[in-house]
Amino acid sequence: MAVPFITRLLTLALGYAYPAYDCYKTLELNTPQMEQLLFWCKYWVLLAFLTAFERFADCAVSWLPMYGEAKLALIVYLWHPNTMGAGRVYDDYLRPFLAAHEVDIDRGLLELRARAADATASHLQAAVALGREFLFEAARRVSSRLQATRSPAGQGHQ
C-alpha cells in the first residue's frame, strides 16, 4: 500500500509541481526563450493527453505490475533536461497523429459544442419553467393563507 502512495506523490511532484515551477521560471525570465516555452507547451499538451487517456483506460492498464512506476519514469523522461523527451514524443507521435485527424477532431468539437449549447438551453428553459411554477405556487399559497387569516376577522366585525 505504501509504494503506490509514494509513487503517486512522486508523480504529482515530478510530473506536475516541478514542471509547473520550471515553466513559471521560464515565463518570468526578462526575455523568455521561445525554444524553452515551446518545449513546455509540448510537455503540457502531452501530459494532458496522457492524463485524459489514463482516465479512460484506467481499468485496463492500472492493474499492470509497476504501472505507476512506469508512468512516473515516462513523465520524468518527458521533461528531464538530459532527455527532453516531450519534444521527441510530441514531434514524432502526437503532432503527426493530430495533424492527420485535425479536421475530424475539429468537426467533432463543433458538434459537441452545439450539442452542449442545445442541452444547456433546454435545461435552462426547464429550470426557468420549474422556477416559475414554484413561484406561482408559493404566491398562491401565501395569498390563500392571507385570505384565510383575514376572513374570520372580517366576519366577526359584521
From TrEMBL:
<dbReference type="GO" id="GO:0016020">
    <property type="term" value="C:membrane"/>
</dbReference>
<dbReference type="Pfam" id="PF03134">
    <property type="entry name" value="TB2_DP1_HVA22"/>
</dbReference>
<protein>
    <recommendedName>
        <fullName>HVA22-like protein</fullName>
    </recommendedName>
</protein>
<comment type="similarity">
    <text>Belongs to the DP1 family.</text>
</comment>
<dbReference type="InterPro" id="IPR004345">
    <property type="entry name" value="TB2_DP1_HVA22"/>
</dbReference>
